[in-house]
From TrEMBL:
CDD domains, per database record: CuRO_2_BOD_CotA_like
Entry's family note: Belongs to the multicopper oxidase family.
Catalytic activity field: 4 Cu(+) + O2 + 4 H(+) = 4 Cu(2+) + 2 H2O
Plastocyanin-like domain location: 59-119, 148-189, 393-496
SUPFAM superfamilies: Cupredoxins
Matches recorded under PANTHER family: BILIRUBIN OXIDASE, CUPREDOXIN SUPERFAMILY PROTEIN
GO molecular function per UniProt: copper ion binding; oxidoreductase activity
Protein name, UniProt field: Multicopper oxidase CueO
InterPro entries: Cu-oxidase-like_N (IPR011707), Cu-oxidase_C (IPR011706), Cu-oxidase_fam (IPR045087), Cu_oxidase_CS (IPR033138), Cu_oxidase_Cu_BS (IPR002355), Cupredoxin (IPR008972), TAT_signal (IPR006311)
Tree of life domain: Bacteria
Keywords: Metal-binding, Oxidoreductase
Length: 498
């Protein structure tokens, strides 16, 4: 085993991982920041809010003047935002009007297994599909045709969740074409805090793409109809990266803000790109960002950061006080790990004064203490490239993904420590559970590891321990690398709560 074999590295180098656009890139900071529409329930009853989403092909004007084919929830990218209350069930009926099967996963949701978007629980296209690859189906898969009702009890604290496609081997291309949206959970605990709200609360979904001359988003993969494309190289060491940074589907947008505190719900929905966010100019008088929440909601207390690394699928809930800048200032959200066109993300223009009505309390929430002494079991999983010559690109514990293999069976309600070791960067996501980072590189958790998380970024050669209570529901769930190309190339496994 060891690092990705020379063959993989050679292939990736030959095909190029950073895709560049074949069209001239527009000037940045021209397009106003779009906010995804909030989806209205089609019905509400005492038990649940009912929603309907159609997954369909559409065309979007992402770069000004260019028509880009997408796959969209409701035909939009990002999909519409769903807003829910803690403890109130949301039932989302998805109708698949695409030409390929889909699977919907609510990322960060504490969801019963039959609605979690298990990777082989396909929704076949409503218009029919010739299932030439039915052999890949898992005998336990629950396949539906056309529609499926996903039931989300949402017995969980307020948090920025998101939903996206999760089909086995094809998550990367499907999400890349646009199948991703926010699902925000709110609750009374958070409502009681004087945090910025209303138009001072902005969901920011960050992705990167490259555009072909015909307007399509470049994705170097097997094609969408499952046919084999001769000559297409599949393994990518870095995953698919583009040269255009989109926020809520717009290239390097600009948002006008008042000189007041704003809450930014930042989601990295990129297939593979990590960002290291910073503000330019930095605000006078202290760090740019006050982190109030992580993947799974509020921290116990706010933390200040002057920059913020964010890996695929992670969320950070931040407050930025634009009141520290003079009116008229243009503040750029930078990506310190990018270069050229990927070195910046978006811009804020501090357009006017505003009455400040928020502040950040010193105590935000109370988190259940979890410590090593509560854990009955410690498990270890390695995340590594396949040895050269193996047909799969990426492995967990030396094995590529199989729906029929269960690698861990925690008993419902038990606390366990899971130790992860990595060859390269891998953002590791566990379905169902909320975990805390217990150690990183043999030391205390890092400055960005606070709070309850569902995705943790491993760095090359580093071991990370997380601790979680495996409660909620019995059943089969996945855990995997959230670099979508690594995931599709085998870096996924199952656990089952008993
Ligand atoms: Cu965001 Cu298993 O996924
Ligand atoms: Cu990975």
């Amino acid at each position: 085993a060891g690092l990705a074999g020379p063959r993989l590295l050679g292939r990736a180098a030959a095909t190029g991982e950073l895709l560049t656009s074949e069209v001239p890139l527009p000037a940045p900071f021209q397009v106003p920041l779009p906010l995804p529409a909030v989806l209205r329930p089609v019905a509400r009853d005492s038990g649940a809010d009912h929603y309907e989403i159609v997954q369909r092909p559409a065309t979007a004007e992402i770069l000004p003047g260019l028509r880009t084919p997408i796959w969209g929830y409701q035909g939009t990218f990002p999909g519409p935002t769903i807003e829910s209350r803690r403890g109130r069930t949301a039932i989302v009926r998805h109708r698949n009007e695409l030409l390929v099967p889909t699977v919907v996963h609510l990322h960060g949701g504490r969801t019963p297994p039959e609605s979690d978007g298990y990777t082989t629980d396909l929704v076949l296209p409503a218009g029919g599909w010739r299932a030439t690859h039915s052999g890949m189906l898992d005998p336990d898969a629950k396949v539906t045709r056309g529609v499926r009702d996903y039931v989300y009890p949402l017995r969980q604290r307020a948090a920025t969740l998101w939903y996206h496609d999760h089909r086995m081997d094809f998550t990367g291309p499907a999400v890349h074409r646009g199948l991703a949206g926010f699902h925000i959970v709110r609750d009374a605990e958070e409502d009681a805090l004087p945090l910025p709200r209303g138009e001072r609360e902005l969901p920011l979904m960050i992705t990167d793409r490259a555009f072909a001359a015909d307007g399509s988003m470049r994705y170097p993969s097997r094609d969408s109809t499952l046919s084999t494309v001769p000559g297409v190289e599949e393994p990518y060491v870095a995953g698919v990266l583009g040269d255009v940074v989109l926020v809520n589907g717009a290239p390097w947008p600009i948002a006008e803000v008042s000189a007041t505190r704003h809450r930014l719900r930042v989601l990295n929905a990129s297939n593979a790109r990590r960002y290291d966010l910073a503000l330019d100019p930095p605000p006078p008088g202290g760090p740019a960002f006050t982190q109030i929440g992580s993947d799974q909601g509020l921290l116990d207390a706010p933390r200040a950061h002057d920059h913020l690394p964010i890996a695929p699928a992670e969320r950070y809930d931040l407050v930025v006080d634009f009141g520290r800048y003079p009116v008229g200032t243009e503040v750029t959200l930078l990506n310190r790990t990018g270069s050229g066109s990927t070195a910046y993300v978006m811009r804020f223009r501090v357009a006017r004064r505003g009455a400040e009505d928020s502040h950040i309390p010193d105590r935000l929430s109370v988190l259940e203490p979890l410590n090593r002494t509560q854990a009955g079991v410690t498990r270890e999983f390695s995340f590594r490239g396949a040895p050269s010559g193996d047909g799969h690109g990426w492995l967990i514990g030396g094995q590529p993904y199989s729906p029929s293999r269960i690698d861990a069976r925690p008993r419902l309600g038990d606390v366990e420590v899971w130790r992860f070791v990595a060859d390269l960067h891998h953002p590791i996501h566990l379905h169902l559970v909320q975990f805390r980072v217990l150690s990183r590189g043999g030391r205390e958790p890092g400055p960005f590891d606070a709070g309850l998380k569902d995705t943790v970024d491993l760095r090359p050669g580093e071991a990370v321990e997380v601790i979680a209570r495996f409660d909620g529901y019995r059943g089969r769930y996945m855990f995997h690398c959230h670099n979508a190309e690594h995931e599709d190339m085998g870096m996924m496994a199952n656990f089952e709560t008993l």
